[in-house]
Design goal:
The chain is mainly beta and about 800 residues long. It is built from 6 helices and 44 strands.
Amino acid sequence: MKQYLKPKFKKVKHLVAFLIIAFSINANAQELFTLSGKVTDGNNPVPGASILVKGTKQGVASDFDGNFSISLKKGNYTLIVSAISKPKEITINLTKNTFITINMEDSFVNLDEVLVSAVRVKSSSPVTHSNVTKEELEKRNLGQDIPVLLNYLPSVTSSSDAGAGVGYTYIRVRGSDASRINVTLNGIPYNDTESQGTFWVNLGDFTSSTQSIQLQRGVGTSTNGAGAFGASLNLLTDAISENAYGEISSAIGSYNTYKNTVKFSTGKINDHIEIAGRFSKIDSDGYVDRAFSDLKSYFLQASYVDKNTLIKAITFGNEEKTYQAWYGLTAEELKENRKQNPYTYDNETDNYWQDHYQLHWNEKLNDKWSTNLGLNYTKGKGYFEQYKEGSAISKYNNIVEATGTDWYGSPATDLIVRRWLDNDFYVLNFNANYKNEAYEVISGISASNYKGDHFGEVIWARQFAADANIRDHYYFSDATKNEFSIYSKASFKINENLSGLVDLQGRFVNYETDGLTSDRDPLNIDKSYNFFNPKFGLTYKVNNSNSIYTSFARANREPNRDDFKNGSNVKNEILNDIELGWRLNNKAISLNTNFYYMQYKNQLIQTGGLNDVGEYLRENVEDSYRLGLEIDANFKITDNLSISPNFTLSSNKIKNFILERDGNSKNIGTTNIAFSPNTIAGNSINYQPTENLTITFLSKFVGEQYLSNTDTEASKIDSYFTSDLNLTYTINPKSIFKSIVISGVVNNIFNKEYVDRGYTYLDYWSTPNNSFEVQGYFPQATRNFLVGATFKF
């Protein structure tokens, strides 16, 4: 028996030994090592840096202290590391658990460093913000304007006159319109100095020259130009390219939309000099009939860089021609044909040219000190042309003769006018940055000078006066606005877990204008304002994944030109903004939760009515507020699938609203602020089945909102829900081109008919049955598409 079992027992032992060896070999082959490290800027940790493993879908973000960790098999890897900087590649041979330090200092030797220190905030700052990278913008960069591309950020809504996102487009944040959103380009103020608005139509295809965008909600940090009363939006233009490249991009879509772009860069010549540029042409007929856009733009930059110096000379500009669609449709017209355009004169167009010239000099003096000087000159000039039927001749300075009467029996005639703007804008920015391991201090100044002429000319009339000439001015006014601000902000560590921010700004404004309005009413203004805007914040690191923050900020803001035109007793505004937030960031989830309370004194709210150039009228209300909860997240479901929802729930109220309607005044109590939906939600589902293919499904819900401040049912517009589908596919050919990127988007894929904006005069007068005289709506496009290809070589 024993002899019989012995050979079998030996075989079993051999089998067990073989299995142990095989398992060991297999286990060794599958063994994972930990690659951990710290990302720094040379002195301080860089939180929120992205560390991606090239050629895979694996990646991680650095935590509050700049630390990261990722598990990988044995092998050679290339890491792509990026923060608010150009990406940096690191090669690693992983054979054991390894710790590395990644110094991103050399990646900040471009304008990013300037903007981070001057007007941007870091991911750990106690300021509510969102960052958008060039890669994210490129996915849908097919001709639509920047407000449309930012539509899916938290608390953001967008709209356009023509309905399809090309031409005159608009953005709101937390219910605040573009005149209350501070916009800077490389730290240079972009908001129109007099109206305080942002005209994206004058930045055709600017997305193609944008490196990154940061949106700060609320007051945010001190910035240059008009004070932020709803948000700050700063854009950074293209970084220096290490290598030469060329790029040709074309897109085609619904409503005869075409986009053609050519880009180039010489790369670094002799390691120091780069010349780059872009030329673009965008055309679209618009969703609304005849609401066409014809946009021509350019961007050129020349750069010099060495270890301690960066100098950039940049010029960019745009020529735009758009057909009038400023006044929307009445309810009856909307029901009859939502694409119709009431204007029939064939040259009812807006024409404007704008050129910018910027010079930036960034100098690193030593490991602790750096400085930046920014200079800007902007030239803008243009007009809009209108046909006026039966217009009273008293408005035209005796240039024309009457050929009939208007509705009121006054002498009148038919004529065509052009109303001009001709302006010059100069800016000087300077800041100095000191930082060590314990704190960072940035101090700076900004000074600007604006000069602008407003005038009108009659280019045709049925009967000119005997002593009049074509193009004689029938009104003229000039304007000068000087602004100076000085600020200092310090971020510092209180202990290992607690950090603070102190930000103090003084802003000094003088505005003068003299002459006549387009209605030939006197407009003589000489106003000066001295504002102090303090900001304080704390961030507490709970652990490597969680942090909480709180901040208080005050902002002051002067009235704009139209406010003075509408009333001589207009007051400046004051805003106190309190924010409280929680941030969670680990391998699977990134979550931001924020409570805000924005309390206003003398807020200039929009009444719902439009002026004679299609801009919303405003009036002071003594006491009002915006209270809200914002949540945005990114869930990594698998290596191929992620979901990024956001949600805003808010209450936007005027206390004791005094309604002056039909000559009577009445306190109607607490009412909702116009154009402020209580619910805004967005979602992005991103699926990457292969390395070259990305599919993104985007959704947006905007709750019902009022067009006036009266809570009148007649002024309410319905909620709407829209969805877009975006695909990008990259081809890597073996010759000629480095890559070919094919992208497409189907907007409003479920073909919803909706309006997202309108106007009403119910704050001024009422009419029976809400007749067409007091209501107007801006229909947005139903299902439409854009598809394009970018050839890189």
